[in-house]
């Protein structure tokens, strides 16, 4: 490729060293300002009054309940989405039927809906003054301003994540292996566990990672459906907002730092997956 | 149209996978979106229009769309540059830079929002510097623009990157042999190849920015007619339990989103016809 730099001669398809250096400089500076600076700011603000203050604010009862709630929501929504993603990818890649493109469009729909509008939709469908929501409240099972609503909002926002990772991989792998297993007499579950799952596990893990990061960090949709009840429906991002608006900067940024660490771990795991299992992850992510 | 509705297949699990897919799709997405549209219908088109046709709503919709457009334009240029630098050049820290491009996808929007505000507020590091030259960033439209650039950053870079990887050096060599300068090759040969993917990324970044809420509200200042974004108006209406008005603004935003989804698909069809891949 661009091994020309080893010689003092420049290939006609290379930019001059000056242009090259300028472009790299712009990229580094731009990303540094846009991405690096906010990252540093989170930790700097969290540690403004030292480690002790930061840790103490995380030990606060509201903070702990927010962390617990966020973990609970991710623990429910991510598996739900994994089940959906596998089912949808199986349906789309293993069968031929009319309207497939339309089905894919519907699955992608949440990508183009504002999180706030997504929350609004769930409030209108399941809120106490809707037909269904009113009945559910009367049965003692409220959805909006309670855990089920937050889970619904989170699943809505992350809906396409896992399906989108699995579909290209399963198209690429084709049906031959599964058809061979079928002729050899394998049953449905046996076939899925021994043939399909080993082929899609890295793509599935990749999708789960992205889905989980988004599920734990979702703000707009959850802000609308949660009712922001402290200690009950305030997730980590919502608690960050409340603390920030109360000028409790250290507490807000300490909680934010925890989520930032999660984002960094996610990125690291994602990079490792991309490097080690590039051939088993969706084609669009290969680089 | 002669194609049958469903082609028989020996593959197991049709009923189960179709059942799970359609049930979840209905409960999570279709019914709630349907509830919004139903609310709009029962409220009536005249009333819908009355809600949207107010100065505060228009100015919020226009602000969201205009700033999202500018942010997406910035990302179109910067994202293409990033893709080029990350694929073509080898330098220390390239892998770190590559990973950093994805941070806006992974970082929760509320975290990004307060971090950007801390940086660009008058008492923040960068905001303080800007203030010395009389430039206010946080709590102005510039601040909103920065937040929208942040959330849209990965889209163009990530859609263009694989295309840069696939460019064959021979094409550039041919162009150079025929006497084209590097700049001419870039303009006439390389950029046209990148354009479809870059445009797709642009549309994705635009769509994301128009609906963005979490990273914007902290830095925006939220002054009506000046720095108030459209999603915030919905939240305000909901806090006042004004569901009809919230639904009206929601439908207006949904319409904009669908128009953009349509545009993305048209761009993809157009570029596939022109180049053969995206």
From TrEMBL, chain A:
It is found in: Cell membrane. Keywords: Membrane, Sulfate transport, Transmembrane, Transmembrane helix, Transport. The chain crosses the membrane at residues 21-44, 64-91, 103-128, 140-163, 203-227, 247-269. The keyword Transcription regulation does not apply. GO terms for cellular component: plasma membrane. GO terms for molecular function: ABC-type sulfate transporter activity. Residues 67-274 form the ABC transmembrane type-1 domain. Its main location: membrane. It is a multi-pass membrane protein. The complex is composed of two ATP-binding proteins (CysA), two transmembrane proteins (CysT and CysW) and a solute-binding protein (CysP). Part of the ABC transporter complex CysAWTP (TC 3.A.1.6.1) involved in sulfate/thiosulfate import. Probably responsible for the translocation of the substrate across the membrane. This is Sulfate transport system permease protein. It comes from Gemmobacter caeni.
TrEMBL record, chain B:
Keywords: Membrane, Sulfate transport, Transmembrane, Transmembrane helix, Transport. Residues 61-264 form the ABC transmembrane type-1 domain. One of its GO terms (molecular function) is ABC-type sulfate transporter activity. The chain crosses the membrane at residues 12-37, 57-87, 99-121, 133-157, 189-210, 245-267. The keyword RNA-binding does not apply. It is a multi-pass membrane protein. Belongs to the binding-protein-dependent transport system permease family. CysTW subfamily. Part of the ABC transporter complex (TC 3.A.1.6.1) involved in sulfate/thiosulfate import. This is Sulfate transport system permease protein CysT.
């Amino acid at each position: 490729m661009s091994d020309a730099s080893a010689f003092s001669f420049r290939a006609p398809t290379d930019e001059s060293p000056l242009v090259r250096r300028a472009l790299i400089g712009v990229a580094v500076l731009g990303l540094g300002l846009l991405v690096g600076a906010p990252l540093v700011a989170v930790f700097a603000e969290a540690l403004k009054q030292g480690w002790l203050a930061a840790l103490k604010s995380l030990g606060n009862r509201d903070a702990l309940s927010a962390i617990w709630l966020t973990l609970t929501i991710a623990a429910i929504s991510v598996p739900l989405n994994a089940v959906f993603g596998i089912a949808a990818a199986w349906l789309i890649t293993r069968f031929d039927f009319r309207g497939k493109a339309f089905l894919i469009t519907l699955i992608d729909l949440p990508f183009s809906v504002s999180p706030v509008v997504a929350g609004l939709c769930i409030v209108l469908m399941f809120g106490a003054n809707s037909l269904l929501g009113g009945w559910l409240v009367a049965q003692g099972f409220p959805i909006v301003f309670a855990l089920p609503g937050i889970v619904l909002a989170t699943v809505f926002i992350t809906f396409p994540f896992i399906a989108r990772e699995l579909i290209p991989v399963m198209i690429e792998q084709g049906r031959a292996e599964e058809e061979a297993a079928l002729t050899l007499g394998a049953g449905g579950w046996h076939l899925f566990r021994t043939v399909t799952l080993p082929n899609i596990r890295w793509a599935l893990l990749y999708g789960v990672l992205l889905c989980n990061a988004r599920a734990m960090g979702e703000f707009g949709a959850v802000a609308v459906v949660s009712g922001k009840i402290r200690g009950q429906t305030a997730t980590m991002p919502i608690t960050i907002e409340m603390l920030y608006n109360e000028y409790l900067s250290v507490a807000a940024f300490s909680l934010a730092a925890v989520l930032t660490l999660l984002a960094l771990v996610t990125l690291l795991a994602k990079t490792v997956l991309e490097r080690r299992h590039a051939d088993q992850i969706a084609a669009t992510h290969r680089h | 149209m002669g194609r049958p509705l469903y082609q028989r297949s020996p593959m197991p699990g049709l009923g189960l996978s179709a059942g799970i897919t359609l049930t979840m799709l209905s409960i999570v997405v279709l019914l709630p979106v349907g509830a919004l549209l139903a609310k709009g219908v029962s409220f009536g088109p005249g009333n819908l229009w009355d809600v949207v046709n107010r100065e505060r709503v228009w100015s919020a919709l226009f602000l969201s769309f205009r700033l999202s457009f500018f942010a997406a334009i910035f990302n179109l240029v910067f994202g293409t540059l990033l893709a080029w630098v990350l694929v073509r050049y080898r330098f220390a820290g390239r892998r770190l830079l590559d990973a950093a491009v994805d941070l806006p996808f992974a970082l929760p929007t509320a975290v990004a929002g307060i971090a950007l505000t801390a940086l660009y507020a008058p008492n923040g590091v960068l905001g303080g510097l800007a203030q010395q030259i009389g430039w206010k960033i946080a709590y102005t439209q510039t601040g909103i623009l920065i937040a929208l650039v942040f959330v849209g950053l990965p889209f163009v870079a990530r859609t263009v990157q694989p295309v840069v990887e696939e460019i064959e050096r021979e094409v550039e060599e041919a162009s150079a042999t025929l006497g084209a300068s590097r700049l001419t090759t870039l303009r006439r040969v390389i950029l046209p190849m990148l354009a479809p993917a870059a445009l797709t990324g642009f549309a994705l970044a635009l769509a994301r920015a128009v609906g963005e809420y979490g990273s914007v509200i902290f830095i925006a200042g939220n002054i009506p007619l000046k720095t108030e974004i459209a999603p915030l108006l919905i939240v305000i209406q909901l806090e006042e339990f004004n569901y009809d008005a919230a639904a009206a603004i929601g439908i207006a935003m949904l319409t904009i989103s669908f128009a953009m989804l349509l545009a993305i698909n048209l761009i993809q069809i157009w570029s596939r016809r022109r180049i053969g891949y995206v």
